[in-house]
């Protein structure tokens, strides 16, 4: 684990030091001072390269002989005053990625910028540290034969800034969110023989150590509640399905206040069931529980940073397997809401799970807003690729708040339409609805299906199928489970639903 601290600017004696350069090769004070001290080593190295000091430029220079420093890394700030929070995070991420394979144990980053865009030097320092930590994530517990020189070497990061106390204070809050992100990434990365409905329910229970009240509902309880849509999906599995309710009371004085609610799809493995998926790529369906992992990670973040909000997290945990007890195409199930569903395709299972989870959450908690996260459709990836999650909502204010939070945190959303004409596509000949639409607009008909279970609650559905897992390294997200949604929803809460007291 990367150990992160803050200090006043000084030239470190060992390890690597990173210094900023503005656009057009304009050196920051410390870089200029080092240049003089090393008799022009910095300007010479820049002159012999394409490094311009643009955003995301990086140039590594071996420290001149006579110094015990290992290396100097120059990073681009872009135009003076142009750095924003996400840009600062990307710098931290890029430095960590670069240093990982160099053999260096220590990195000091000197942060010297003039305040701009509401980004003070201290905030920039905190964000660089945050980006560094987020990028340092690695899921390597099953790599038993990796040699030490194949593991990332970087152990300690010191971020140097004029006001280290303020940077540290700001980082502490971000660090808690990162704890939630890491927990979610771990859960998503684990294979389905390790994370199944029972073990995932157990993992959620660990949040009780932070003061989160965690309740487990097994199949018997859910049967009594009439959750046959959810239970039908888990019917073919040897593992017991679970509904987990997590409650964080950050405003204990406001007991009667309606909470904010988050609902996650937790299909720990989606084989497709009897409508079985093709073999190619099926292993990726271990991350069909990413929505529920994001809800767990979010609840962890809210509790760890002591958010002043009353929040509820509900996750529906099932394994979608084919077997002699599995549900069949054509089966009709009665959901907890009383509405009946004809199961045309057992692979459209996420909406069946959410139908009961959403209804239950609404009935029991009467939340002021309800947001679900789900790797719900391949169709959303066709529509939006892997740069935006799909946002569907019956409430413009909530949708706008989500779009803003997504932009601020770099977890971007794109709003998709809902409407009566789409809704008609899921009418069934023998039941109230069927669980698939026609060939087109698959992510929209899936959202219309969910909408039938939220009534007038201000609700948003995030289809994160393209975002739950990153197929490549990104500035603050290494390849693998992304924990998409944790940062976004933590920000949504912080900006709109938290208050003093
Ligand atoms: N979990 C899948 C959606 C998915 C597909 C997520 C690919 C990530 C990558 C979901 O349960 C599913 O199978 N959806 C079907 C729905 C169809 C049968 C109507 C799909 O998208 O093909
Ligand atoms: Mn499916
Ligand atoms: Zn699925």
> Which small-molecule ligands are present, each listed once?
ligand BES, manganese (II) ion, zinc ion
CATH class type of the largest domain:
Alpha Beta
CATH architecture of the largest domain: 3-Layer(aba) Sandwich
Overall structural domain count: 2
Mean pLDDT metric:
96
The outline comes out as: elongated
In the CATH hierarchy, the third-tier topology of the largest domain is known as Aminopeptidase
What portion of residues belong to β-strands? 15-25%
| Distance between the first and last residues' Cα | 35 Å
Q: Total helix count?
A: 15
- Placed side by side, the strands forming the largest sheet appear as 8-9-11-10-14-18-15-16
**Helix coverage percent:** 25-40%
Query: What would you report as the Rg, rounded to the nearest angstrom?
Result: 25 Å
CATH superfamily of the largest domain: Zn peptidases
Helical/strand content category: alpha/beta
List the SSEs and their pairings:
Elements: E1 3-7, E2 16-22, E3 26-27, H1 29-37, H2 41-47, E4 58-62, E5 71-78, H3 85-100, E6 106-110, H4 121-135, E7 156-160, H5 164-189, H6 197-205, E8 213-217, H7 219-225, H8 228-234, E9 242-249, E10 260-270, H9 290-304, E11 310-320, E12 332-334, E13 340-342, H10 350-365, E14 369-374, H11 379-384, E15 389-393, H12 396-409, E16 413-415, H13 420-424, E17 433-434, H14 442-451, E18 459-463, E19 469-470, E20 480-481, H15 486-496
Parallel strand pairs: 1-7, 2-5, 2-6, 6-7, 10-11, 10-14, 13-17, 14-18, 15-16
Antiparallel strand pairs: 2-3, 4-5, 8-9, 9-11, 12-13, 15-18, 19-20
Bound molecules: ligand BES, manganese (II) ion (MN) and zinc ion.
């Amino acid at each position: 684990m990367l150990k992160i601290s803050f200090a006043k600017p000084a030239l470190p004696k060992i390890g690597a030091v990173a210094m900023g350069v503005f656009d057009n090769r304009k050196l920051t004070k410390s870089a200029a001072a080092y240049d003089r001290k090393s008799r022009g080593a910095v300007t010479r190295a820049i002159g012999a390269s394409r490094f311009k000091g643009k955003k995301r430029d990086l140039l590594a220079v071996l420290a001149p002989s006579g110094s015990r420093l290992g290396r100097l890394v120059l990073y681009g700030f872009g135009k003076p005053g142009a750095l924003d929070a996400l840009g600062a995070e990307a710098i931290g991420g890029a430095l960590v990625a670069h240093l990982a394979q160099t053999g260096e144990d220590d990195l000091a980053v000197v942060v010297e910028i003039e305040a701009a865009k509401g980004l003070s030097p201290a905030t920039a320092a905190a964000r660089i540290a945050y980006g560094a930590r987020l990028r340092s994530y690695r899921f390597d517990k099953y790599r038993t034969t990796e040699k030490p020189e194949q593991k990332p070497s970087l152990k300690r990061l010191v971020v140097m800034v004029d006001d280290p106390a303020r940077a540290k204070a700001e980082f502490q809050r971000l660090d808690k969110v990162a704890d939630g992100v890491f927990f979610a990434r771990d859960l998503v990365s684990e294979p389905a023989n390790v994370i199944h409905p029972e073990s995932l329910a157990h993992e959620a229970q660990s949040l009780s150590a932070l003061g989160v009240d965690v309740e487990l509902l097994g199949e018997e309880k859910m049967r009594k509640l009439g959750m046959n849509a959810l239970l039908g999906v888990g019917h073919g599995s040897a593992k017991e399905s679970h509904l987990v309710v997590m409650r964080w009371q950050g405003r204990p004085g406001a007991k009667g206040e309606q909470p904010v609610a988050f609902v996650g799809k937790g299909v720990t493995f989606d084989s497709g069931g009897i409508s079985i998926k093709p073999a190619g790529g099926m292993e990726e369906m271990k991350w069909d529980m990413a929505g529920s992992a994001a809800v767990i990670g979010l609840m962890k973040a809210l509790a760890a940073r002591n958010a002043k909000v009353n929040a509820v997290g509900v996750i529906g945990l099932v394994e979608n397997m084919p077997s002699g007890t599995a549900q069949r195409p054509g089966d009709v199930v009665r959901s907890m809401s009383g509405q009946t569903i004809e199961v045309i395709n057992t692979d459209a299972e996420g909406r069946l799970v959410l139908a009961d989870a959403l209804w239950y959450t609404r009935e029991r908690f009467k939340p002021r807003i309800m947001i679900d996260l789900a790797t719900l459709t391949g169709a959303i990836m066709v529509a939006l690729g892997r740069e935006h999650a799909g946002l569907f909502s019956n409430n413009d204010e909530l949708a706008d708040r989500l779009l803003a939070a997504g932009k601020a945190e770099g977890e971007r959303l794109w709003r998709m339409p809902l409407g009566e004409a789409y809704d008609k596509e899921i009418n069934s000949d023998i039941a109230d609805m069927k669980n698939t639409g026609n060939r087109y607009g698959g992510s929209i008909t899936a959202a219309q299906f969910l909408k039938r279970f939220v009534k007038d609650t201000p609700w948003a559905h995030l289809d994160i199928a393209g975002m739950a897992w990153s197929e490549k390294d990104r500035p603050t997200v290494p390849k693998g489970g992304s924990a998409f949604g944790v940062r976004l929803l933590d920000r949504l809460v912080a900006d709109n639903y938290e208050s003093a007291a």
